[in-house]
Specification:
214 residues; alpha/beta; 10 helices; eight-stranded mixed β-sheet; Rossmann fold; two-stranded antiparallel ribbon
Length: 214
């Protein structure tokens, strides 16, 4: 059974933790304040453990980055030793927000957070996915009227295959998982976040995904 560490205990992290735990995985939710997070998330799932970020990265097989994208690079670079040899699933978007609190610009134009993470963590297998949708769709793709797409970007074919299996545990059908290629392709999916503010201004805070229609 896979042990999964999730760095970040906000809406994205706790949503993923609950579903992956329900699928049978041992999940550790990494947070800067484990005791406060435990109290705040009582009833999330009995099999979920709580720890600080360093312990979470060191003691689990696969790590998910659900920290704020604009600070992820510094946070995770500090965990280089703990992440060595592991798969790091990056679901974050690195943006500079507008006064409305919505994404306004990319932190790494001409590149991507995933590429920067891979360069900073050469002994880690970074895979980008699930960053092109509202967090609720990550664990319930069937709730959208139009079947959404989950994109994959990464240099390791084995890591992407492993991540595809985890996506299946989250409810994603194989035909809705689109492998784009190596880690440089993440700059395309990360740029998709720039359409989100315009969608939300017109339709409000509703579930959505930026997908391929065939």
């Amino acid at each position: 059974m896979t042990t999964i560490g999730i760095l970040g205990a906000g809406r994205v992290g706790t949503n993923l933790a609950g579903t992956l735990s329900a699928a049978g995985h041992h999940v550790t939710l990494g947070t800067r304040n484990p005791e406060d997070t435990t109290a705040r998330t009582i009833g999330l799932a009995p099999r979920i453990a709580f720890a600080d970020h360093r312990t979470t990265a060191r003691t689990t097989d696969i790590v998910i980055n659900a920290t704020p994208g604009d600070s992820s690079l510094d946070r995770l670079t500090d965990l280089r030793a703990e992440l060595s040899g592991k798969i790091l699933i990056d679901v974050s978007n690195a943006t500079r927000d507008t006064a409305e609190g919505l994404p306004g610009d990319l932190c790494y134009p001409g590149s991507s957070l995933a590429e920067r993470l891979q360069a900073a963590l050469p002994d880690t297998h970074v895979v980008k996915t699930l960053n092109t949708m509202l967090f609720t769709v990550m664990t319930a793709p069937e709730t959208l009227a139009t079947p959404p797409t989950a994109y994959l970007s990464g240099d390791s074919e084995h890591a992407k295959k492993t991540v595809s299996g985890l996506l299946g545990d989250l409810g994603w059908q194989p035909e809705r998982i689109e492998d784009l290629g190596d880690i440089t392709t993440a700059r395309a999916t990360e740029a998709m976040i720039l359409v989100v503010p315009h969608i939300m201004r017109r339709h409000g805070f509703k579930p959505f995904a930026v997908s391929v229609a065939r």
